[in-house]
Amino acid sequence: MTRNEEMLTASRPALLGAAGDDAAFRRMLHDLLAFSARLEQVRARFAAFIGLTPPQYTILITIRHLQDGEGVGVRQVADHLALSPAFVTQETGRLVQAGVVDKRPSAEDRRRVILTVTEHGAELLRRLAPVQREINDQLFEPLTEQSFGVLQALAAELRESAEQAVRLSDYLIAEGAGAGTGSGQRSK
Amino acid sequence: MTRNEEMLTASRPALLGAAGDDAAFRRMLHDLLAFSARLEQVRARFAAFIGLTPPQYTILITIRHLQDGEGVGVRQVADHLALSPAFVTQETGRLVQAGVVDKRPSAEDRRRVILTVTEHGAELLRRLAPVQREINDQLFEPLTEQSFGVLQALAAELRESAEQAVRLSDYLIAEGAGAGTGSGQRSK
DNA sequence: GCGAGATAGTTAAGTTGTCAAGCTATTTCC
DNA sequence: GGAAATAGCTTGACAACTTAACTATCTCGC
């Protein structure tokens, strides 16, 4: 196996195998990809259960997650989910229509809007809980107390490093730079 | 804190906190959600770099991942990514057009089709590697050799348990069962 | 204290991702 | 040898999501 260093998709030693290869790393990426696709499927089922579309459900639980005490704004929700503010506006509109979210202008900053989950929204999520419990148990069935601890801490860290990574990729892969079929590259 | 057991979204002890609460578990779910949204953003940048759309890129690397020795079929790719075969057919068609994937009928089973990455496709991915390396290092910056080991093994297991979980959710959330807005809603 | 930018959100119009349904060709297996 | 299962393809139709252009408010440097 003439392993070519130039082809590695990661270089940190912690991510490479004994032979300096990235096979395990790649496999992990594909596993994570498949896993998150399944998570999304499950979320779609949850959404259906309470009569929402998948993005609506995702936005609803995000609002609840971020609303601590005071409410949360459109932009914060959009950032957290990596969605455009326009889309979040549109979908929260529907959530308000459905009576599961309340939207009111902020008192201090009148450009802003405060999103909170209504009692009705909370009630729907409460009804979902029993089903969720059963499915989540299955979803994370391989986790032990130990590995849950690791994963739980890691998830928080990875969220942040991934945010950085997106910024880095925007910098490295600027509009037009690329290895496209033939044409030369230009930086912005 | 009158923690109500009925509202928990997980019940396995390994997933609950000292107080029997699911706060950490929920936080983890939101972190994973945000993380995978960022992963998707990064994939979109990778795709752009080699002149493909995000789903095309994802399908391309999945074909490469699964093609070991012999090629891989449409259905296997669809299953791995939780996409419909119809969509995979359509997008692989475009990948063939773009010259990055080869599609030929299987010799043994003439219903089937064998997908492989062409030399040109491999070359594009090779050109992407240096960028990928830098971004992946940032993406997984918090990982140590230890935690990489844990995560790597976990990802493989979670992929399977999640597959089970999707089946379970299909069973539990059958067409029409639900906590919709009051009325028992009939779907078409 | 005042105009130039930045920031929050909305609206409308468009693009892209994705699927369901219906079809053909093959294989399986009773 | 035929019914049922399986692999893939085609077409239409939506749902998900974005970009661009706009309004309203806020923040500062000067």
UniProtKB/TrEMBL annotation, chains A, B:
InterPro entries: HTH_MarR-typ, MarR/SlyA-like, WH-like_DNA-bd_sf, WH_DNA-bd_sf. It comes from the Bacteria. Residues 25-160 form the HTH marR-type domain. SMART domains: HTH_MARR. One of its GO terms (biological process) is response to stress. One of its GO terms (molecular function) is DNA-binding transcription factor activity. This is Transcriptional regulator, MarR family. It comes from Albimonas pacifica.
